[in-house]
Amino acid sequence: MNVVKTIAELKAFVNEVKAQGKTIGLVPTMGFLHDGHLTLANTARQENDFVIMSIFVNPTQFGPNEDFESYPRDLERDVKLAETVSVDVIFAPTVEEMYPTDGGIRICAGRQSEILCGASRPGHFDGVLQVVSKLFHLAEPTRAYFGQKDAQQVAIIQTMVRDYNFPLEICTVPIVREVDGLAKSSRNVYLTEEERIEAPAIYEALQIAKEEFLASQDVERAVRLAIKHIENKTSGKIDYLQLLSYPDLKVVTEETTQFLLATAVYIGKTRLIDNLIFNIKG
């Protein structure tokens, strides 16, 4: 496996692979890898000839009071883990390498970014689209792999790829969970022992809401029961908990066939997100 830190080095590999007519799978990450990332890479390995994993903590998707500086970083550890799933190249650029110039042009994520995580993180998804679009141009992937845990992010990226004719396929991989149901996340390391015990109640709440909605078709009641469960079982503060259509992220109607049940909860100082995507049959 090769670790490269410059765009020129990455493009040399990409050009060679493309010249051989081989497919490329891209796994964009911010590092501090866990089983979720490795599942993405393993899926990419099975479906492509060549796998590129990017490891880059992207400053443009962090707000002024968010955890950019303290976000966990350990490239040496990540390299060892990536080797276990046969990643071919890790692209680990500096901020200066990724953003050497700023001509003032910005990408606006639009309506889908103004709800859920985007409501409390203005500009976050603009920054996501900025870095993702750069990675798509640099890696020229046949397929790019994202986890369902970031369901809103995936929906927004899918919209950009569709509406702006990016020549690649977006592949979504189901959430990887701990034994007790907690969605795996790099931020889980922030949880104290007590907070870690509370955190699985988030997934429990989503399951309660899903079963209630499938039984009653009552969005408000389903959401209310989930909120009550989190409030009763944790000391957490709910940022949002909503049931929407997916992937367009609109209000549920009688015509809706695919649903996103999504939440963000602060357990202590750690913001945890989770979701369920399901259809009318469950």
Give an overview in words:
- With 282 residues, the chain is an alpha/beta fold.
- It is built from 10 helices and 9 strands.
- It has a 6-stranded parallel β-sheet, sandwiched between helices. A 3-stranded antiparallel β-sheet has the order 7-8-9, covered by helices on one side.
- Helix 7 links the parallel strand 5 and strand 6.
- It is globular.
Mean pLDDT: 96
Judging by the overall fold, what is the CATH architecture of the largest domain?
Answer: 3-Layer(aba) Sandwich
Broad structural category = alpha/beta
| Name of the CATH first level of the largest domain | Alpha Beta
Our Rg estimate from Cα atoms comes to 19 Å
Helix content: 25-40%
* Strands, count: 9
- Specify the number of helices: 10
CATH topology of the largest domain: Rossmann fold
The coarse silhouette is globular
Strand content: 15-25%
CATH homologous superfamily caption of the largest domain:
HUPs
User: What is the spatial order of strands in the main beta sheet?
Assistant: 1-4-3-2-5-6
The first-to-last residue Cα distance is 41 Å
Low-pLDDT segments, ≥5 res: none
Order of secondary-structure elements: EHEHEHEHHHEHEHHHEEE
Report the biggest beta sheet as strand number plus sense, adding barrel if it closes: 6 strands, parallel
